[in-house]
């Protein structure tokens, strides 16, 4: 009987079927749109007592759509199941070690989630008068001051939303500074090891980029730098430790040289974790610096963002900072003040405020001493791992590294055909997220490990054992290895096809 | 002091021994001693978590204006919408919160698919076929849209409607210092962009209008499209993602790029961030798209899979030639928006949009019935905000309303600076822009009107 | 070099290794104890300013241990990773359909989590004076009244922690009632289809159990019941719909017969979901009833509990209810009142209060109409499924069922050797939780499906398709099927060994 | 009205058609019409979630006494301990919260392993080799322990120390109505069980003592063991799971069964529930163990796995012959306890225990320095609670302290009824039992003492 009058066959996808959670299976998860059924709803809204009038009485006809925009129609139950299953198809720090170089994927304390959810912080309208937001203003002033102390700078802005936004802000500050000296400089120097955001930001900042090579030590080639310097150079962008995980030992000389031609030093703070409480960019001679609070200060990365990229500057750049800035006023209250020569706003409001609240929480828990311990343990972990895996994965530069180590799989590749990417994929099967691969660009077959300070010695040892196993497997069974990962919900994906047959939305679907 | 690091002293010692080091300080030997911090950072000592929680609670309490403590009529781009527990709970799952950018798609299908769904939703709401994985906020989106449009039109002259939020315009101007774009602000007349007022100068390569202005009026996108066609400009439209449910899509009206602030889609007011920059464009612009894009593909067994695609646009590959410098974006807010839109659905979003317009109209009527309070633009339809004028300074009125428990709106003077083209200079100091979302009740609106009566005295 | 001074080899388990999350692999997750490292800590406590004195000054030596009890030593990071990974090894309603018969695994609204976490509810000491807990008292009174209206009873107690506790409470009420009539009755009648808690509770209540058989209809055998009735019978325990998912049509006759000999009717409310707003136990003639708020009222089951098992009673049993009971006093405030003939407390305090708050939230969202819709959709779903799968899985009793359907795999077993348990295990691979198996005991090879009202037609159809597939596989490939599940973190487990070589704690471990 | 059901009207219609039914009411045809609810339930109509949230917030606000709003010195079995965000966040994961009892071990290894870890922790703290997966609460645990002990000793006479919380004793008495156990309460003398006072009657089969009494004194478990040996009784010990860290384990002192209230292990005060019944016993009692037990085993590939075991004890198998009727228990609280203990660790738990004893001693000293306030038992060591007497009724004192923002403790008269053997009848109405957990600060204790000075006047 079942099959006679049976159910509507051309059905939406079943929201209650859990075959895509890796706990049960590795089938694909339907999209919300595939689960959608006309007329199904989940929303519940407050009873207001205000009648909803016909839209035609409220909105001029030329602007009004004929019908509501069709988005999706699912039940709350299916919504929960869908996103819970998607979460099971996602790796995260909460699941295990994430030694992704340059990303500082440390443990994100849960207390910060609670702080960011406090109604007194989360429910504040950014345009509310200062009298109603004294807490937020105080928080921001305290954070600015703390970050200045950590970095050795004179003043800061919290507006930039991420590192790249901080970079661009910094470059505009650089320009404003030179302009105020009556100077218009066109070039910015950037090492070849730099992160891609550096040159991209420089371009958007209105500069031409001059690339400075890295020498055999893995450091800025001082000679090349000196040659590139002239009075058309607005400044240099450096990260220190650099992206090879090495401290730029010549920083004092570099700073002197750049300052001598009237240039400024920009510090890409992505690697600040290595030197917290040990050495400060300001003391090294940097004039402008951004921090990635989503790296160093443990605010979670959210699968791609949000971050926060505050910029701190030395005394002579201070007056150009974006505004309005939070400040303690003379009457003892907090308010907004715009610096005299401000470049203007770089954010629609005051920055990624709730990220800032998380960072201040982290800062307060650690205090000055704790931050130094962070750097020490981060560097200790990286060096331990560097030495421990050096047999099969020699460091690109054989010296004490800072918080991360770049190793190379060139020898492995030569011997077995196994590339850095194969190691990275195979490592997933071992229960670890892959390191960063093929960055920095100056190292062949680069694998960049940043173990971070919240991983234990046991985790490092286990990671090393996995890497050893992979190296042996590369010799004994390279084909199998290249087929990895095999235990994940999907295997290696066809990236070329994604670009060739672009399907950026459900409505462009061509597959199945 | 307690912290989050696992190392016991014995382990530190054994690790140092393995490295043939005597002290942890030796790890930093490459750093010139003279540069090193000698006496420790001048920061207070670390505090245990519970102490810090109490301290942060104290800070939070000092924000009298929290929408949970006051009735919120403030809008102008950031709105007090219902975000149900189910959305907060799903968006707060650790797997989403503590993931990095999906560099290894095999273990990131969760985020990738969620972003793909977000892109689909933004595409549907904007009426354009491609949407990216998010940018920082509305201001960043409009800035990037201008960059894309300039690159496409090859003219750096930008006609930017003053119907766009003043803060966003400020951001556009700041970043134009670097790109050298010439930003010409288009004044409003009767709540709509008055292109004739700027007709004298160079032909623009880019025109930017807000479908609904920050003052709550409807601008005429179709007219802007005609203008753009006349001068050969690329048209960028700023749209509200809630009203998108019930208005003609900017795409259908001819927008080349649609941008917006996604905060109303499930993100709390958050004192301005993290918010969510929305960005959609037409297919022929896709290789100039800023930020990340997720595309569908297959894995080597032919299973449907998602991956970030067209990466050659991006800074990590293209470096100084990249279309944008953006790297970290606001993915978690994008996922939140996808969840919130899933919860609202077609009907819920339309209901919210209808309520916002309807309740704001009711709000307008009630406050304008107070003697001395006038519409800034009498007779002009209100979208989801309404601008009113008061006989005394708007800032004073708002302070008084706050004492009665209302966040009564925003003073336009706190947003638009003197001479701003969006508003009659003589009224700027006395104008408040206010909004009623789907959460506001009749009792609250009526009480506000009553309080306003006393506040303007 | 790596291998010379290499790492300590006899190490604790690596907390950062995620090979046990099914996303990456199906290795076993180490226990917390295996991850433990002497001296490692996670805790952080408030600064109090009170000195901790030497314990020897505070505690008499004969009571004081020589050293703190060794429990476990892990970092916060590892704790998070461990329990997040464990959560990935656990099925739940949030992941997908859970058609576990008799358990009413409906969607648990997330709003209830928020309510249960409200500090004004969660942080209240149960012994605080009534003047400080007026909210809680009001909540409890409102819930009692609502539950009485839903069930058609006169008064209720919220104290019992779960259904079984409710049963025992009810049986003690039965005893107290009879005693007050000067009657001491020794027997309680229970159908053979009843849940095991019923006879177990009866024993603890001081009764002997007389089992009443089920007739060919799947209902109480009325003749057998009548024969069993005499004045030694204190009452009968029934669930209606019964555990075969059928409504006891003769309930009026049963009630009359039991009342005639002076007995009381006890209603096991586990199946209340089927009849919400349709028919009330009180109107059927029941005198005492428990509800399982963790079934019918959507409070989550927490992997085994907590539940809440309020008991409601008719007018004549009211005075015996446990106390103290929340009540609206004459002065308009709320307070505690003990019924005149109360049997006493059945809970250390007032019941599973936060579960009660969730249930009231659910009740308020649904209201009277909504509850009826719940029953309608629950029954509609069960019947749709019953008919849809009837070809391969005929219902044990071929008639309209209520909220659940018991089907039998006897024919399948005869034809293929595949048993109910095999179907249940194989279904996991299909993305569905198994139904209840081998219950009720009166049905051979029973599979008891309770789809619940929050599952969609699409989910039901997909479940049916999976069941069809399994039936075909039973014919074509029974060995494969018996090997299922194969995609889960562990395969079928050795239950016999668990009982034979008891390892109830880490300290008793004999394996690996 | 919105609700959580997915059915559209069209779907309901198609499903009915599939069933050859015309209306949904026909599904209920087996139910006699006369019995059916005709006019609908007399309940208010359904309200949307946000309305209900506001209503519940109103209810919550009416609880003046929340420990988050008042400084809490109330204890006596339920304590205001630190529960950090990390524990709440992990224990709140949907997979744990919305799972059922682990009937299918293949997809329930998460809960099963967490319970196994909980059992291990309880076993270590109790000093006994077996612990179950939880019971409802401390009162239920002691009730079940008595049932087990009676079954084992074959005598129904129970000597129950009045050091055990009065509410628990009340529960024991209630359930004894069904089992017929004879419960004899043992009075306290100097804060310890005075077995001589009940020496006259029948020899007990079961002796129950609290290692630390509800009045905050240390009872003598070793002495109880000697007594039990003399009379051949089974010894049940009620233990506090926090103090278990620093006291000799009841197991090492000879307890046969150890029970306790697990609320202090990560569960909020919760107005009394859901709490966590702890239960541990010796190996030879395991076949009488009430409730579920998880054991380790292997799967068919030899991988370590967990499963509920010795199920033949349980009601669903053994029915009327089961050792207990418990089915649903408090698993989520057990998992919470495992997480909380993991977070505290060996050192944290010892620190909390030490602080509780030390701070309660400080509290005792401060409040007893107030003229008119006396120790109930001068010179007797206090564990984690202290009993004091006031010159006026304790209830009045507590009401006055509440007005000053303190939940100053519990009035013993609100717990122990007249004639209770735990306390001198003449002092009952004037005795308060109070406690300082690891969260209480010096400033709070000092302020309480000050407030107490005024409150007793
Ligand atoms: C060295 C370096 N610089 C800059 C950035 C850009 O930072 P963000 O992603 O916050 O924009 C990154 C991010 O990975 C980085 O690693
Ligand atoms: C029919 C029936 N009765 C009683 C119970 C026992 O309820 P609880 O687990 O709440 O004690 C159950 C639980 O599954 C049940 O299904």
Descriptive notes:
The complex is a heterotetramer, with 2 copies of chain A (512 residues) and 2 copies of chain B (457 residues). Chain A is 35% helix and 10% strand. Chain A has 512 residues and is α/β, with parallel strands linked by helices. Residues 1-9 of chain A have low confidence and may be disordered. Chain B has 457 residues and is of the alpha/beta class. In chain B, the strands form 5 sheets. Chain B has a 7-stranded mixed sheet. In chain B, strands 13-14-17-16 form a 4-stranded antiparallel sheet, covered by helices on one side. A two-stranded parallel ribbon of chain B has the order 1-15. Chain B has helices at residues 9-18, 49-61, 85-91, 94-97, 109-126, 138-153, 166-179, 221-231, 315-318, 331-368, 394-403, 442-455; strands at residues 71-72, 130-131, 157-161, 182-186, 188-189, 192-193, 206-210, 234-238, 257-261, 277-281, 294-298, 304-308, 374-375, 386-389, 406-407, 410-411, 431-434. The model of chain B has no long low-confidence stretch (mean pLDDT 97). In chain B, strand 5 and strand 6 form a beta hairpin. Chain B has 2 domains: 67-81 and 347-455, Aspartate Aminotransferase, domain 1 (Alpha-Beta Complex), CATH 3.90.1150; 86-338, Aspartate Aminotransferase, domain 2. The chains are: A alpha/beta (512), B alpha/beta (457). At the C-D interface, helix 3, helix 4, helix 5, helix 6 and helix 7 of C face helix 1, helix 2, helix 3, helix 4 and helix 5 of D. Residues 102-103, 162-164, 195, 197, 239, 243, 268, 270, 292, 307, 309 of chain C line the site of one pyridoxal-5'-phosphate.
Protein topology:
The complex is a heterotetramer, with two copies of chain A (512 residues) and two copies of chain B (457 residues).
Chain A: H1 32-35, H2 55-58, H3 76-88, H4 110-116, H5 119-122, H6 134-151, E1 155-157, H7 163-180, E2 187-191, H8 197-204, E3 208-212, H9 222-228, E4 233-238, H10 251-260, E5 264-269, H11 281-284, E6 288-291, E7 311-313, E8 325-328, E9 334-337, H12 353-388, E10 405-408, H13 410-416, H14 420-429, E11 436-437, E12 446-449, H15 457-476, H16 478-482, H17 495-500
Parallel strand pairs in A: 2-3, 2-4, 4-5, 5-6
Antiparallel strand pairs in A: 1-7, 6-7, 8-9, 10-12, 11-12
Chain B: H1 9-18, H2 49-61, E1 71-72, H3 85-91, H4 94-97, H5 109-126, E2 130-131, H6 138-153, E3 157-161, H7 166-179, E4 182-186, E5 188-189, E6 192-193, E7 206-210, H8 221-231, E8 234-238, E9 257-261, E10 277-281, E11 294-298, E12 304-308, H9 315-318, H10 331-368, E13 374-375, E14 386-389, H11 394-403, E15 406-407, E16 410-411, E17 431-434, H12 442-455
Parallel strand pairs in B: 1-15, 3-4, 3-7, 7-8, 8-9
Antiparallel strand pairs in B: 2-10, 5-6, 9-10, 11-12, 13-14, 14-17, 16-17
């Amino acid at each position: 009987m079942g099959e006679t009058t049976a159910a509507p066959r051309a059905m939406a996808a079943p929201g209650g079927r859990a075959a895509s959670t890796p706990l049960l299976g590795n089938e694909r998860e339907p999209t919300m749109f595939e689960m959608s059924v006309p007329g199904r709803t989940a929303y519940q809204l407050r009873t207001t007592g205000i009648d909803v009038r016909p839209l035609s009485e409220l909105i001029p006809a030329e602007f009004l759509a004929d019908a509501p925009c069709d988005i999706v129609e699912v039940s709350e139950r299916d919504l929960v199941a869908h996103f819970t299953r998607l979460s099971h198809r996602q790796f995260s720090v909460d699941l295990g070690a994430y030694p992704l170089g340059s990303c500082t994927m440390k443990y994100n304390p849960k207390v910060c989630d609670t702080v960011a959810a406090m109604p007194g912080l989360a429910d504040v309208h950014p345009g509310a008068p200062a009298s109603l937001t004294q807490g937020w203003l105080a928080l921001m002033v305290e954070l600015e001051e703390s970050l200045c102390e950590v970095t050795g700078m004179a003043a800061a802005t919290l507006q930039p939303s991420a590192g790249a936004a901080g970079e661009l802000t910094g470059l505009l500050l650089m320009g404003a500074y030179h302009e105020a000296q009556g100077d218009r400089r066109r070039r910015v120097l950037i090492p070849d090891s730099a992160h891609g955001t550096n040159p991209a930001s420089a371009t958007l900042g209105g500069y031409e980029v001059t690339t400075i090579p890295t020498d055999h030590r893995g450091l800025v080639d001082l000679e090349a730098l000196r040659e590139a310097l002239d009075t058309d150079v607005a400044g240099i962008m450096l990260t220190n430790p650099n992206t090879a995980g090495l401290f730029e030992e010549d920083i004092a000389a570099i700073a002197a040289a750049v300052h001598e031609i009237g240039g400024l030093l920009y510090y890409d703070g992505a690697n600040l974790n290595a030197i917290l409480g040990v050495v400060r960019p300001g003391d090294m001679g940097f004039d402008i610096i951004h921090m990635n609070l989503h790296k160093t200060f443990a605010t979670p990365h959210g699968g791609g963002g949000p971050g926060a990229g505050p910029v701190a500057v030395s005394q002579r750049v201070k007056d150009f900072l974006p505004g309005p800035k939070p400040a303690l006023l003379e009457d003892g209250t907090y308010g907004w003040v715009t610096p005299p020569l401000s470049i203007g706003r770089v954010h629609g409001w005051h920055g990624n405020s709730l990220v800032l609240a998380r960072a201040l929480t982290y800062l307060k828990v650690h205090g000055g001493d704790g931050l130094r311990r962070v750097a020490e343990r981060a560097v200790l972990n990286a060096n331990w791992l560097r030495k421990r895996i050096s047999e099969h994965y020699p460091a690109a530069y054989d010296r004490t590294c800072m918080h991360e180590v770049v190793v190379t799989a060139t020898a492995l590749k030569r011997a077995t055909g196994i590339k850095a990417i194969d190691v990275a994929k195979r490592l997933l099967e071992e229960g670890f997220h892959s390191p960063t691969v093929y960055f920095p660009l100056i190292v062949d077959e680069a694998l960049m490990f940043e173990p971070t300070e919240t991983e234990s010695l046991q985790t490092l040892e286990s990671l090393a054992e996995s890497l050893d196993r992979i190296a042996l497997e590369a010799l004994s069974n390279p084909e199998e290895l290249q087929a990895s990962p095999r235990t994940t919900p999907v295997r290696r994906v066809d990236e070329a096809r994604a670009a060739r047959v672009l399907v950026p939305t459900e409505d462009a679907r061509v597959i199945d | 002091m307690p912290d989050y690091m696992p190392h016991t002293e014995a382990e530190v010692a054994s690790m140092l021994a393995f490295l043939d080091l005597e002290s942890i300080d030796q790890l930093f030997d490459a750093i010139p001693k003279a540069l090193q911090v000698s006496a420790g950072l001048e920061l207070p000592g670390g505090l245990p978590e519970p102490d810090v929680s109490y301290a942060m609670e104290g800070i939070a309490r000092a924000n009298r204006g929290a929408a949970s403590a006051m009735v919120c009529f403030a809008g102008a781009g950031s709105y007090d919408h219902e975000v149900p527990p189910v959305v907060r709970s799903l968006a707060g799952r650790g797997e989403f919160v503590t993931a990095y950018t999906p560099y290894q798609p095999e273990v990131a299908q969760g985020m990738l698919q969620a972003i793909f769904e977000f892109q689909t939703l933004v595409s549907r709401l904007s009426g354009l076929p491609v949407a990216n994985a998010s940018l920082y906020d509305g201001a960043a989106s409009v800035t990037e849209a201008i960059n894309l449009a300039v690159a496409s039109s090859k003219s750096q002259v930008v006609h930017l409607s003053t119907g766009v939020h003043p803060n966003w315009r400020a951001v556009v101007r700041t970043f134009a210092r670097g790109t050298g774009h010439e930003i010409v602000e288009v004044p409003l007349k009767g709540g709509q962009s008055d292109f004739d007022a700027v007709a004298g100068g160079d032909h623009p390569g880019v025109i930017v209008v807000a479908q609904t202005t920050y003052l709550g009026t409807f601008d005429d996108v179709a007219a802007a499209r005609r203008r753009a066609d006349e001068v050969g400009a690329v048209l960028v439209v700023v749209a509200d993602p809630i009203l998108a449910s019930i208005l003609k899509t900017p795409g259908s009206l001819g927008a080349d790029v649609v941008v917006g602030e996604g905060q109303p889609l499930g993100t709390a007011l958050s004192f301005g961030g993290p918010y969510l920059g929305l960005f959609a464009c037409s297919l022929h612009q896709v290789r100039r798209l800023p930020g990340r894009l997720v595309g569908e593909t297959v894995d080597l067994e032919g299973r449907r899979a998602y991956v970030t695609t067209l990466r050659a646009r991006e800074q990590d590959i293209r470096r100084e030639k990249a279309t944008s410098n953006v790297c970290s974006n606001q993915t978690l807010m994008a996922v939140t928006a996808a969840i919130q839109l899933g919860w609202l659905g077609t009907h819920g979003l339309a209901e919210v949009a209808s309520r916002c317009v309807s309740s704001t109209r009711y709000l307008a009527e009630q406050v304008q019935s107070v003697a001395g309070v006038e519409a800034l633009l009498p007779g002009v339809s209100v979208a989801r905000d309404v601008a009113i004028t008061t006989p005394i300074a708007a800032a004073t009125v708002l302070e008084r309303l706050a004492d009665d428990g209302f966040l009564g709106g925003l003073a336009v003077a706190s947003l638009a600076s003197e001479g701003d083209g969006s508003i009659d200079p003589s009224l700027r100091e006395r104008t408040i822009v206010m909004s009623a979302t789907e959460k506001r009740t009749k009792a609250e609106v009526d009480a506000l009107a009553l309080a306003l009566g006393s506040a303007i005295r």
